[in-house]
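Researcher: Go.
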Amino acid sequence: MKKINEIKEPTYDYITNYLQNLRDEYPFLHLASCGKSVMGKEILGICMGEGKRRVMYVGGTHANEWITTLFLLRFCQKFCESVKNKGDVCGFDSKRILSQIKFVVIPCLNPDGTDIFIKGVSACGEFKEQIYDISKFDFSQWSANANGIDLNHNFNADWYALRDYEEKNNIKKPSPRRFGGAFPESEPETKALTEFLRNVHFNRLYSFHSQGEEIFYEYGKNTPKKSLFIAKALAGVSGYTLVKNEGHYSSGGLKDWFIEEFKEPAFTIEIGRGKKPLPLESFNEIYETVEPLAVMGLML
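Model: Structure:
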């Protein structure tokens, strides 16, 4: 097998190289783009499986939560290895799982922001002046995309309630974090994902974030009946805590938009615990804890 890159901060070059290596090694998967970022980077996805049920995993929504991208890349690699070797993952037959589902993984929804957080000024390119106005080149809190929009506040789920909250808290313009944009789906990353999801109906969506070791599963009266059962199963294999939405965290997010749009279960998984960004030294422990949850999510 070609050498898969060592585990390190996932710049866009790292992600594309990792995915190309996976594609070259495992012919049963293919790569696709659901659109482009503000800076024109492809928002790449891994697709595999031939089943009727469709499951999507999304990571890298917030730039300083890049450990979610590493988790999804490693998970796809290990899952593919088990399929190729006719083995199992966490005790389950991975090839059989793929016979039952269509599995799509978007490791990094926010490739621009992730590069900006990791690489700093050198990643800003022609957006250097705009990004300076937003951050004064202090990237320590950067979680937004290149336009200074928090992508997980940009989905059309109680978005106007979120806007009221932002205005009351003087969040009125592009920022390294928390600003939800001028209108729902204003950003190319958000728009690309929602259009893809509308064109290909998915039965489950899992949005990976960090940190807190928590699982968000409900969205008020819209919560699907199956959601609590699935969430309890995910908590059982990971030790993570179930959490209900509250405050501005319940508005503008991918999970809530998916539930409202498709009436299907969706979950936000907050992996790891500590100060963002979680250190690379914690990755292996986080991976071992979350892998069973990720496998369970494919089957429920």
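Model: The CA atoms of residues 264 and 289 lie 26 Å apart.
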